[in-house]
């Protein structure tokens, strides 16, 4: 199994920065860690869950949605089995619950259905 736990959400003013974390664990995950793809999605009230960013655990190439490209950066800490999403120049429209997701696939997916494991989500609120 794979367990994902997000943390680091909060309230920030527009133009500010916030970093959310995703701690991954589980026997299967630890065994095949380099074969996992990690993604970040977000869901605002009344809207569909949308793709934000994704990368393979063992590669540096990262995909970003057009709405966050240049402002958000995804990174990892191998020692902690943790993925991060650094969010800069935040806008009120970035307000959403942010979810971490994982999938053991050979490609990087950008849709919700391509991920098998999800965290509980962490709220990010950007005030204007």
Show the helix and strand layout.
Layout: E1 3-7, E2 10-13, E3 18-25, H1 27-31, E4 37-43, E5 50-56, E6 62-64, E7 72-77, E8 82-87, E9 96-103, E10 117-118, E11 122-127
Parallel strand pairs: 2-11
Antiparallel strand pairs: 1-3, 3-8, 4-5, 4-9, 5-6, 7-8, 9-10, 9-11
Global geometry: globular
Q: Indicate the proportion of strand residues.
A: over 45%
Radius of gyration in whole Å, from Cα? 14 Å
Q: Give the distance, in angstroms, between the N- and C-terminal Cα atoms.
A: 40 Å
Oligomer: single chain
- The low-pLDDT segments are none
- For the secondary structure, the number of strands is 11
Helical content band: under 10%
Overall description:
The chain is mostly beta strands and 128 residues long. The protein contains 1 helix and 11 strands. Strands 2, 4, 5, 6, 9, 10 and 11 form a 7-stranded mixed β-sheet that branches. A hairpin with a 6-residue loop joins strand 4 and strand 5. The longest helix is centred in the first third of the chain and has 5 residues. The chain is globular, with a radius of gyration of 14 Å.
């Amino acid at each position: 199994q794979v367990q994902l736990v997000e943390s680091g959400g909060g309230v920030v003013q527009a133009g500010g920065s916030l970093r959310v974390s995703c701690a991954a664990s589980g026997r299967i995950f630890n065994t095949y860690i380099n074969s996992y793809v990690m993604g970040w999605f977000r869901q605002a009230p009344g809207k569909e869950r949308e793709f934000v960013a994704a990368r393979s655990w063992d590669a540096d190439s990262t995909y970003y949605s057009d709405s966050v490209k240049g402002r958000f950066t995804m990174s990892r800490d191998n020692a902690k089995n943790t993925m991060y999403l650094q969010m800069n120049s935040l806008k009120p429209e970035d307000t959403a619950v942010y979810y971490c997701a994982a999938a053991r696939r050979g490609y990087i997916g950008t849709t919700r259905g391509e991920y098998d494991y999800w965290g509980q989500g962490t709220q990010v609120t950007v005030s204007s």
